[in-house]
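User: Please predict the structure of the protein below. I'd like the answer in structure-token form so I can feed it into my own downstream comparison script.

Assistant: Understood. Taking the following sequence of 69 residues as input:
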Amino acid sequence: SAVIENIENKTIDAIRAQQLEISSLSQIVLQNRMALDLLLTSQGGVCTVINTSCCMYVDQSGRISTDLE
């Protein structure tokens, strides 16, 4: 029905908008991490300063976009 199709389209639009925001945020997180690591280089980097083993992962698989298509 037209009502269900309208709801589906609005839901897809909302999810795509969120995916764009997530992608932008992940870029900012990565840039901030790189800048912080650079600032703390003389002290051994972020992982040394916070005294833990650390690994950074930013998912850029695009799964949400792929699933919507």
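That's the full token string. The chain has a mean pLDDT of 82.
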